[in-house]
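Marked as duplicate of an earlier ticket. Keeping the data here for the record.
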Amino acid sequence: MSANAAYRCLGALARQLRASGLRHAVIAPGSRSTPLALALDRTEGLRSWLHLDERAAGYFALGLARQLREPVAIVTTSGTAAANLHPAIAEASLSRVPLIALTADRPPELRDTGANQTIEQHGLYGRHVRWFAELPVPDGSPGLEAHAQRSAARAVAVATGPPAGPVQLNVPLREPLIEPGWEDALEASSEPPVAVSAPPTRDASEAVAALLEAAAGRNGLIFCGPANGDLPARAITKLAAALGWPILADPLSGLRAGAHSLTHVVEAYDALLRSPGFSSDPATRPEVVLRFGAAPTARPLLEYLANLEGVPQLAVDAPGGWRDPDATVTAMLWADPAVLCEAAVAALSARHPSSFRGTPDDPARTAARTQPDRAFLERWTSANAAARRALAEAIAALGEPFEGMPPALLASALPDGATLVAGNSMPVRDLDSFFPVTSRRIRIVGTRGASGIDGVVSTAVGAAAAGEGPVVALVGDLSFLHDLNGLWPLRRHGLSLLVVLVNNDGGGIFHFLPQRERAAAQFEDWWGTPHGIDFEGAIRSFGGRLQRPALGEWREAIEGARGAPGLTVLELRTERDRNVELHREVWARADAALRELDLDAAPATSASAR
């Protein structure tokens, strides 16, 4: 068999991927994937990114796809190279990020025979992919180029959803893998591109009716969970204004930072719900909850929602999605969130025409509410303002390194258009607790689908590759250590990244768990896991710079490094047991402020005061 039959087929596949909207392909080197790599690399309008490590390459592609909000292909050779994509594929599935895994494979006759570099790649990623298909071995048979095109078109359509997610095309190839004439073979197919129309927007009338029935005459909360910053912030805030409900906004929801209205946004809910007086106050208990995005990051909020017995909880999700890990949702509303919110606001205006003045486009129209009493909203927003002030004052007064300090600094030091990539374990929880609302357009994202610590650096580097403003990663030391290979593309591709590294020499999150007290003798070895590594040498080997700013110099250091070329790492060293004590001290200050606050007399706080 001529190798050029494979090039004809894969040339058609690559051109169709580009015609369907693919602009980027991340390629890990290998022999069996040679025709795939060359086909993609030679396709006009498609940029190829080389990465040496398949596991890190998968997260690089995920970070790039999330940042651009479009599909990205990832190419591997056969065997365990393809298996190394599994963590990123799982994260993409749970976070709904469109990835297209193009996995080269040995031909069928070599499988299950002991052939080198051959594993079972059918169903390799299980139910984590939205769709799996294997291409026939290209052998020059008529129609194979057209079949490859249609597979490529379908792969992009399925990956982009709804809901979005990863797909796998397995590509078996026989030797020879390259021979003279391959360049001409890539251009030989004359098949016209296949067009796939986008699915129509789902009618939201049923979802709107269910929402209005649940909301009528009731005090409610809107919770916006992790969604990679893709929730329609303006539409949700207009709905909150129309209903008169506060919005509890996870930092990864996209509603805690941005140019949309922040009047109804409550971001200090972690501190509020740790305060027994506030969380148990009947006057702050909602009568209905409306949820967007994934489950909360903060455990106090998870427990609060789970304990709202008898309270209807409505979740808005894409058709086919079902985000309800704690089985608290009483109604699943399958609809586009923006369409739902806009239709609900219009329906509320029709129900209460006397509450609206001006034209239909007048922002004042969104001020109509189903309830005349603003006391419920004011209790939440006033308590939020008091807790936010107390947290900021407590952190400023500590005078020693504290892991809650970087989130507060980043909120004020990052410019418009910046992206903040949150590491898992403690960094994302500290963002949830201490990152205040800001009108700056800061996009906050994280790998919260599977919540692994293994690809955060690569995800941030992939985001930097999108070229959409400065990218900052807030990560812990174990996460940084796990993904050092992810730094390699920075120098290779001329990218820039600022890493804020919180180094407590181990697993700080476990100090908040029962293991710390109940398995004290074994704790340090199996959960504390001190590594004793100084990262300076590793950072230099990737062409980076390590700085350890003094306590009062952090803001200046962030502002100076956020636009610097290449890799800059700012390291904050902390002590794990002391970190737990400091968290408790800060939360106690917020609780004290709430106990002193007269919620019945406190005025509502507007976004302008924030």
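See parent ticket for discussion. The first helix runs from residue 4 to 19.
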